[in-house]
Amino acid sequence: MSDIIEAVRAGATGEVLAQTPMPSHTRAVFVRRDEQHMFEGLATRDKDPRKSLHVEEVPLPELAPDEVFVVVMASSINFNTVWTSIFEPLSTFGFLDRLGREGIWGKRHALDYHVIGSDASGVVVRVGSAVRNWKVGDEVTVQCNHVDDQDPSAHDDSMLALNQRIWGFETNFGGLADISVVKANQLMPKPSHLTWEEAAVNGLCNSTAYRMLVSRNGAPLTQGDRVLIWGASGGIGSFAVQHALNSGATPIGVVSSPSKVQLLKDLGCEYVIDRSEKNYRFWKDEHTQDETEWRRLGKDIRELCGEDPDVVFEHPGRQTMGASVFVTKRAGTIVTCAATSGYMIEYDNRHLWMKLKTIKGSHFSNYREAWAANQTIVDGKVIPPLSAVFTLDNVGEATYQVHHNLHEGKIGVLCAAPEEGLGISNQELRDKIGEERLTLFRRNK
Ligand code: NDP
Hints:
Number of strands: 20
Bound molecules: NADPH dihydro-nicotinamide-adenine-dinucleotide phosphate
Shape: globular
Oligomer: single chain
């Protein structure tokens, strides 16, 4: 193990860390360019992340002036980890090559391996010469919006920037590693009442849900709104439920098992639909949807909470979008950030225009939104939906579980942290929020 990781583990001060030598290499999770066609011809479900994800030492690049090195104590599995590992819908090497054409610092990313991961909690161990607000020794979480702040298009809403990227998905040197390269404008304070692994699972999913439901760039929700949330105990859904409750709105969660129904009720979500029990068949066959099934969902929602949803939180995509557009209230909003089950979407446009509904696209969040979302965690108003923890060496299995929907909430990954449960520096706040509530998603530990 390198001196710097040992020093971070031992809780060394910033001064000591700054004097401790950096290693030339780090342990990291990556996919390989020469394997990007390995799953061709297989069905999506048969593409196995355990075969494509490698864990080995790779060289650390030179640090750009606006970047920091972070010793990553913990990271998480996101659905983009799945996409990268199965090379769908595209191999991510195309993203790296495009970044590689943007100057000398961009060139570092266009390699024959792609170090992935879009979440991290850890400690800053080096800062570039242009970094002002962060110093060696700071405990941080990382948000994954990778933006060139010298681009004018990045200065209204940075998600509109022409060269906006997701760190660890469209860039190299992501968070599933012992040491990662992070732009200074991705850093946020680590919530002091959380362990490293609890702090590592929020950046990407919480910020995404925040923009979709709370920010003025999203739906946004207001008190009294009804919001239908697909995948409500999953990564983004479990944050969406909490933001809906905090906004004074009423979430209607959709999940696929009785145990997930109970989990959502324990989280405070009164109205939950078990889609497995209901056995909705929105598609009669691959090409034909069934409006009577959309109506059945709409009736179930009305019976539960008396109203049609003002907002639908969409991400399953092809399987559910027709139903989502149908059940949304007149003048309501369908806010979508994904299409897990297929991105060629079909819905009946008559239900959209005659009832003056809006479909709104959303993608991750800008730094301001990510910061505000992080604040909800720092204040204990949103809990981390950490359900399981894997080691870095076992990332393939963790990614397989998310790919096959075998998980709840978020899966954390221990990187440089030697064991679970470390990193809490504000026990008083932890006690105030309550251990039981903070670990709600870990009931199957
Ligand atoms: P998870 O797998 O953690 O959760 C998704 C949930 O959706 C599942 O738990 C499942 O819940 C539900 N689901 C899956 N397939 C279907 C289906 N066919 N019909 C209805 N429900 C379904 O993933 P995440 O929440 O992390 O991400 C969800 C999607 O959002 C992914 O495609 C991801 O890439 C995307 N995403 C996009 C972001 C952006 O910035 N644009 C950011 C984050 C995520 P259940 O079985 O219980 O119903």
